Amino acid sequence: MSINPHAKVIKPDPRKTDQVYAQIRHEIENGTLPPGQRMSEVWLVEHTGASRTPVRDALRRLAADELVILEPRQAPMVTPLSLQTIRDLFEFRRVVEVAALENISSRVSNSPEIQEQFGQLSTKFNKLLDSSTNENFQTDFRDLTSNFDELVSRYCNNQFLEKSISSLKPHTTRLRLIAHADHDRLRQSITEHIDMCNAVTAGDLRTAGAACRQHLIHVEQSILNALITGNSPFLNSIDLRN
């Protein structure tokens, strides 16, 4: 069989890979695809409406993010969670996020913009605290905490801290389904975010760091308690032995 050297080579569309990657990552983060779930290539092609090539490319990216495990002769699997994984994650968060918030607080005196942004967010958290019976409370809470995370990434002024925090985001996001199941805990979390915002606007780096550390300790405790007591949407998908 002869090969036409002038034949047009059809290259895969990187935009389709991006779409598949974004869809699967979102479904992993929101729990639609729970930890430990196997996803056959045939199912992924049907589920995403994409061909095999962008699906495979997207899976490689998700594996690099440690959200998917690729094994020989096995269907791709959503990375499982375990108690040890959760503990390790929060131990690292207490290093990088505390450092980021202290970094930001130390520069407030030279940046009215930082003071303004965190001050406005504190006001919004206070308003949310007064409307905790509103049917949109959880959605509003999620939006404001996402805004807080974005401000921390934007103003931390350290490329390595920013990169570390960004790499943790998909892992922390899927644990929020567990952390946000307790309505009373959400009210406590709002108060903690107010404390962090106020410490930043005051330029008090020690208080900001301490408030951040205490917040992360409480979030971890809330998640572990939910798993141990059986009050978790991922209960059957998490290894509770370690």
UniProtKB/TrEMBL annotation:
Keyword Zinc: no
HTH gntR-type domain: residues covered: 14-81
GO molecular function: DNA binding; DNA-binding transcription factor activity
SUPFAM superfamilies xrefs: GntR ligand-binding domain-like (SSF48008), Winged helix' DNA-binding domain (SSF46785)
PROSITE patterns: HTH_GNTR (PS50949)
Record's keyword terms, sorted: DNA-binding, Transcription, Transcription regulation
UniProt-listed InterPro entries: GntR_C, TF_FadR/GntR_C, Tscrpt_reg_HTH_GntR, WH-like_DNA-bd_sf, WH_DNA-bd_sf
Keyword match Transcription regulation: yes
Pfam family, one: FCD
Protein name: GntR family transcriptional regulator
The organism of origin for this protein: Corynebacterium glutamicum
